[in-house]
Write a structure and sequence with these properties.
heterodimer, A: 4 domains, nine-stranded mixed beta sheet, seven-stranded mixed beta sheet, 22 strands, elongated, B: alpha/beta, Rossmann fold, six-stranded mixed beta sheet, four-stranded antiparallel beta sheet, ABC_transporter-like_ATP-bd (chain B)
């Protein structure tokens, strides 16, 4: 068969150009690896989350009351669109250890638990009196086993003993953070607990609820239900109703999914794009170099379709080989890497990776399509030529004097070698541009990756040095009535007071809750900046909100917000407030105002937190132990600890960026190797002639190296601004609800890619010295092929 | 009665290089009969190769008719031309033009597989004296051997005509002579029409017909009633 002979040729061609075959396969492997790995992981996370929320029947709305009787809670069932309701009492109790006081968020759980169903991992539900179910992370941190007894302290009763009947996970608390600042969650200090309604009543002394979970009918209008709840609860101590998006764990989890989703949509495509450009360039030049062979086949009367399929065969072969290897690596290695990271923060019972074959198929298709397209287009051009023409060497292009040549002063001073390089580059403009294009893509991608890495570091840096300028955050148990009379080491510290309460904004498309941070105008330990880096002072007329929040709801300075205080102590008090400034907040989204502003709205919220800056950093230990040793202090958080926690929370992202950088380096190495290798194979005869003329190998090497280097430098000049543009555009698109990446092009995010590119070019050329050495003068000149 | 096989009627070929057009062929007429051994003589650039390329459907003329077996091949479409190249024509080039990554045998096998009515590749290679080199790659063969593979490749297709473009151009005297001898033997044995291009007028006596080309025109057509064996010719 003709095909089988050509198949032999195909295999031998591959063997002859092993280096290029491997390089191009690697390019495809990287593309497929990223594509399949990312889409598989994001898809799995998405599907898992949806199933998990459906199977455990996650509530649609959380109606909050100061106190509601089970009978009144049941009445909410009559609201149109409500399928089911389940009341519960949620309260934070403490557990005291020698050097630690932890918080357990207690939930009473109905015997017939139908909404927010808990997933028992070990043991049984807390159906018996005085039994408790803890979340697995808290239990693990404290080495609790089923059957152990724990003691808790409550405002109602000191020392309540409860027996652990089981360990669980809840879809409501996939991320067990106490509040937005507790991310990544600290499982040692905060846990989730479930007890029966009778046990809870035993602690509090009476049976009542403060939260009603609402399971709405599919497609029901949640806003209408929220309004009805407020209507029905007019005479009750109703506070507010939150939807899923307003609950902390759900918000954080979905934003994690959204992050994965965004990455999985954009990054692999960029990768495949770069890979496609490289495949395209390499294959079309590879086929160009086979021009005479195509001419011979044509002269022999081989049908065009057969010649075409021979070269398409190479593309398919390479595409499938790379695509399959990349997909396997992506499914196994990539997903495992990210699974470990995600599981460290998010509780996902029973989360395993399923392979979606259409991701793999899509990756294979993409791998093959670009190759086929490139081969087809190059083949067509050659096949359109007459066989007699194709068999001849391409006639040399008319040599026009280059711009530099016209400048005789400069030209006469160049060495013969440099003249040759310049002529080569300018005569083969197309080849030079093709080569540059590959390198340009790589450099742009490297800048994106390094820029990303820099932004992540900068995000932490900015938040913890520019925004937070304090060293310690000390929270007192009781509100501080007068900070002047506080017993503190005034000679060692500077301090500012901070009050904090939660609010819901009620006049936007969704109800949304925020931390309202109340502090003095003079407070310079927490600073707000606008997007140009200008410091924004607080004033007594309005609040400062986060830029993302403003963008999402199209708010601008001067707009009015309806704020409702969530804390039951305020009895649902609400007031209007003006937006006086909009600040960039890298982590979290908070609202800042002054006590004077609040008092205008007739609200007082005494501070309970001190922001402390040590005067003498060497005494930091003393200050810390002074506060942590006091009985009236609830907690002392060092900024550096929080910073470390945040860093580890962003570890997932960091790992991804490292994978990104490694892939970008591999990609550019393969691309540059390929381009340099083709530059040699295309010019074997020319190089052989130089050898015949007695050029020393090192001189030939220098010529090639200089030419490739010239191309690399040219690419750097074009690729660098392109990379910066890519970085800015993509990072802007990657803004998440609780994370804004500062866009800043640092010197090293440009310098590293440039150094890497130059280094890779050098290494590739060193590798290719062997290829030049191997050129056989006689063989190359003997026949025109 | 000898049958007319090929007829060139007022064939012209122009190449455009930039704004200048060069007439490679300027009204070429000649006929070739079945079984003839034809030598086309001419200096470099006279238009010999253009004639051969056009006859072999590797190139198309600007105007004129080329009748092969009663059909005008200038009217053929791309597909018919490919079939014509595959079945009717066997090419031998100055620089052999073998496919580098196929062995001697595979090169021949590859070529014959476009036509059903072909000869056995191994037999043909043995006949040209390469029975022991079947599995060598072109790079492992000498120039003369490579040209024999090329001839075997052309002959094995069992084509209507064998077109040889300076087949000895890259070979030494002795090797070149043995290649010509091989071609003459093939012509005698198989009665295949062979058209050979050369600038070496000394070998003209080996042909049945000698066509001289000069500046894109036919200078003369001479018929040798008694052609000589190449063995008797010295130059």
């Amino acid at each position: 068969m003709v095909m089988s002979k050509l198949f032999l040729k195909l295999l031998r061609d591959i063997k002859d150009y092993k280096g290029q075959f491997i390089a191009i396969t690697i390019v495809i492997i990287v593309g497929a690896f990223f594509f399949v790995g990312f889409s598989t992981f994001a898809k799995n996370l998405n599907v898992y989350a949806n199933n998990y929320f459906t199977n455990t029947n996650l509530a649609d709305l959380w109606a909050n009351y100061s106190k509601i009787s089970p009978e009144n809670a049941d009445k909410l069932k009559q609201i149109i669109g409500v399928q089911n309701v389940e009341g519960r009492l949620v309260m934070n109790f403490n557990q005291k250890f020698d050097d630690l006081k932890t918080t357990l968020k207690f939930h009473s759980i109905a015997a017939n638990n139908i909404i927010n169903k808990i997933t028992i991992i070990e043991g049984n539900k807390p159906s018996e009196f005085q039994s408790i179910v803890l979340d697995t992370d808290y239990a693990k941190e404290h080495s609790y086993k089923v059957g152990d007894t724990i003691k808790i302290s409550t405002p109602f009763k000191e020392d309540v003993s409860l027996k652990i009947s089981g360990l669980c996970e809840s879809s409501e608390y996939t991320i067990k953070s106490r509040d937005t600042s507790d991310f990544p969650p600290n499982h040692k200090e905060y846990g989730i607990a479930y007890v029966s309604e009778d046990t809870m009543a035993g602690i509090t002394g009476e049976k009542y609820y403060n939260e009603v979970l609402i399971d709405a009918a599919p497609g029901a209008d949640l806003k209408a239900i929220t309004r009805s709840i407020a209507e029905v609860s007019k005479d009750l101590s109703y506070l507010y109703t939150l939807n899923r998006d307003a609950t902390l764990s759900y918000k954080q989890f979905t934003s994690e999914i959204a992050q994965q989703d965004q990455f999985s949509k954009v990054l692999p495509l960029i990768f495949f794009g770069v890979a496609a450009v490289i495949i395209f360039l390499t294959l079309s030049r590879l086929i160009d170099s086979q021009r005479t062979q195509i001419g011979i086949m044509k002269a022999l009367g081989t049908r065009e379709s057969i010649i075409l399929s021979h070269y398409l065969g190479y593309a398919i072969f390479v595409g499938l080989a790379g695509g399959i290897i990349g997909s396997i690596l992506g499914c196994v290695f990539f997903t495992q890497l990210f699974m470990a990271q995600v599981k460290a923060i998010i509780s996902l019972p029973g989360f395993t990776i399923h392979i979606y074959y259409y991701h793999v198929l899509l990756a294979l298709l993409l791998s093959v399509v670009f190759g086929i397209l490139a081969s087809y287009m190059s083949c067509r051009t050659i096949l359109r030529e007459k066989a007699a023409e194709a068999m001849r060497i391409k006639p040399p292009k008319k040599v026009k004097k280059t711009l530099i040549e016209r400048n005789t002063f400069l030209w006469s001073r160049l060495s013969y070698g440099s003249k040759l390089i310049l002529r080569n580059v300018f005569i083969n403009k197309k080849r030079a541009i093709y080569s540059s294009l590959g390198v340009i893509c790589c450099i742009a991608f490297l800048i994106l990756s390094f820029g990303y890495k820099g932004s992540r570091a900068l995000l932490i840096e900015k938040q913890f040095t520019e925004v937070y300028k304090y060293d310690l955050r000390v929270v007192y148990k009781d509100p501080i009535a007068d900070d002047e009379s506080l017993e503190i080491p005034r000679d060692q510290i500077d301090y500012n007071t901070l009050a904090q309460t939660s609010v819901v904004i009620t006049n936007l498309a969704d109800e949304k809750d925020f931390n309202l941070l109340i502090t003095n105008k003079e407070n310079n330990f927490i600073s707000n900046y606008d997007n140009k880096g200008k410091l924004l002072p607080l004033d007594d007329d309005g609040v400062i909100i986060a830029e993302r929040f403003a963008e999402k709801y199209k708010l601008s300075i001067g707009d009015i917000l309806d704020m409702k205080l969530i804390d039951p102590a305020y009895n649902g008090k609400s007031f209007k407030t003006k937006i006086s400034n909009i600040s960039v907040q890298y982590l979290n989204q908070e609202i800042y105002c002054t006590p004077a502003f609040l008092s205008k709205a007739e609200v007082t919220c005494p501070p309970s937190t001190l922001l402390i800056k040590e005067k003498d950093p060497s005494k930091a230990e003393d200050v810390y132990s002074f506060f942590s040793g006091r009985n009236d202090v609830k907690e002392v958080k060092s900024k550096n600890d929080v910073k470390k926690l945040t860093e580890s929370g962003l570890q997932n992202l960091y790992n991804m960026i490292i994978v990104l950088i490694v892939c970008a380096i591999v990609l550019s190495s393969a691309a540059i190797y390929n381009i340099s290798a083709i530059n040699i194979t295309e010019r074997v005869r020319e190089l052989a002639t130089l050898k015949v003329l007695g050029y020393h190998i090192s001189k030939i090497n220098n010529l090639i190296f200089a030419e490739n280097f010239f191309i690399t430098i040219f690419s750097l000049i074009i690729g660098t601004p392109l990379g910066i543009y890519l970085y800015k555009t993509i990072l802007k698109a990657f803004t998440l609800d609780n994370m804004v990446f500062p866009i800043y092009v640092s010197l090293d995010s440009i310098l590293f890619p440039i150094i890497i590119t130059i280094l890779v070019t050098t290494v590739c050329n060193l590798f290719l010295r062997r290829a030049v050495k191997k050129i056989d003068m006689i063989e190359s000149l003997k026949s025109v092929e | 009665m000898v049958k007319k096989l090929i007829e060139f009627k007022n064939v012209t070929k122009e190449y455009k290089v930039g704004e200048v057009s060069i007439k490679a062929l300027n009204g070429v007429d000649f006929t070739i009969d079945e079984g003839e051994f034809v030598v086309i003589l001419g200096a470099s650039g006279a238009g010999k190769s253009t004639i051969l390329n056009i006859l072999g459907a590797m190139d198309t003329p600007t105007s004129g008719e080329i009748i092969v077996e009663g059909k005008d091949i200038t009217k053929f479409n791309e597909k018919e031309l490919t079939t014509y190249r595959g079945k009717k024509v066997g090419f031998v080039f100055q620089f052999y033009n073998l496919i580098a990554n196929l062995t001697a045998l595979e090169n021949v096998e590859f070529a014959v597989e476009v036509t059903k009515d072909h000869l056995d590749p191994k037999d043909v290679l043995t006949k040209v004296g390469l029975g022991s080199r079947l599995n060598n790659f072109p790079s492992q063969l000498s120039g003369g051997e490579q040209q024999r593979v090329a001839i075997a490749r052309a002959v094995a297709k069992n084509p209507l005509l064998l077109l040889c473009d300076e087949p000895t151009g890259a070979l030494d005297y002795v090797t070149g002579k043995s290649v010509l001898n091989l071609l003459q033997d093939i012509n005698t044995e198989t009665k295949k029409c062979i058209i050979l291009i050369t600038h070496n007028s000394a070998i003209a006596p080996m042909a049945d017909k000698v066509i001289k080309v000069k500046s894109g025109k036919i200078e003369s057509v001479v018929i040798n009633p008694n052609r000589q064996s190449i063995k008797e010719i010295e130059w």
